[in-house]
Design a protein that fits this description.
Shape: globular
Helix content: 40-55%
Largest sheet: 8 strands, parallel
Strand content: 5-15%
Number of domains: 1
Order of helices and strands: EHEHEHHEHEHEHEHEHH
CATH class: Alpha Beta
Number of helices: 10
Strand order of the largest sheet: 3-2-1-8-7-6-5-4
């Protein structure tokens, strides 16, 4: 940090197991990636090459190495895995991971249907060589999954070897654990966290209001993903109480209440003068 300030929540140093920020790279150029790292590398834990962008991204090897050189773990989005799997090319997918020397991989079934026992077998196999992220939830808003099913799948995938389970939200934040208008499925999330440790879940939360909601619920060290490159620093400010949305969340309670009361009294005085 550039200077000292009291009542700032403690953030673990990288590499960390909680409070993870996952940036979604949807096609940054090599120079753009360099500029991103210059500004945000110290705040970013992992980078996902969104959906199938790695198939057509220029300078892919160089960009992967660039992230690695700055202590950021890159991986290919789960949709790429699904594209290989749907074509019966899982072994080829493994060879692609090895070709690009990726130590992290995602297994998902957001676009296709995979028998869950088979998905867990794939997770178990891959986890012997890679850090595995597995995603739960459909990208189709018309497919509804019961809370009990969410819980069962998350627990099974963690037991199979997933490092974190990703709670589907998509890049738009309007499916999975979110309603079409972007608000959180509160009942669903509450039921999930009653059975699954929050630190084992990475919540896809691309929208600011979603990030605020999760930070207020879990605190500064919640795992959040699908963050746009230009939103990593704004997100960190939310985590630290350095934006209006979370300004009072990390101040001492009596101090925050006094400040709020002063602000309220001043508002009344201004209103009376007007």
């Amino acid at each position: 940090m550039n200077f000292e300030l009291p009542y700032i929540p403690q953030r673990d140093e990288k590499p960390r197991n909680k409070g993870i920020t996952m940036m979604m790279d949807k096609g940054l150029g090599l120079r753009e990636a360099e500029h991103f790292i210059e500004a945000n590398g110290h705040l970013t834990d992992i980078v996902k090459f969104g959906f199938g962008t790695s198939y057509i991204t220029n300078n892919l090897e160089e960009k992967i190495q660039l992230y690695k050189d700055h202590n950021i773990t890159p991986y290919f989005g789960g949709t790429l895995f699904e594209a290989f799997y749907a074509r019966g090319k899982f072994e080829d997918y493994l060879r692609v991971l090895d070709k690009y020397k990726l130590g992290m991989a995602e297994i998902s079934d957001g676009s296709i249907i995979i028998n869950h026992d088979e998905k867990c077998e794939l997770i178990h196999r891959l986890s012997k060589e890679k850090i595995v992220l597995s995603e739960v939830g459909s990208k189709d808003s018309g497919i509804l999954i019961s809370p009990n099913r969410w819980i069962k799948m998350m627990k099974s995938e963690l037991e199979a070897g997933s490092w974190k389970v990703i709670a589907e939200g998509r890049e738009a934040g309007n499916v999975g654990v979110f309603r079409p208008n972007g608000t959180a499925h509160t009942m669903l999330i509450n039921k999930i966290i009653a059975k699954v440790k929050p630190e084992d879940i990475l919540w896809e939360a691309p929208q600011k209001n979603q990030q605020v909601w999760f930070i207020k619920l879990f605190g500064a060290n919640v795992n959040l993903g699908n963050i746009a490159p230009n939103e990593v620093i704004p997100l960190e400010c939310l985590r630290l109480g350095l934006r209006g949305d979370t300004f009072f969340d990390f101040l001492p309670k009596d101090y925050a209440e006094r400040l709020k009361q002063v602000s309220s009294d001043e508002d009344v005085e201004v209103h009376e003068e007007e």
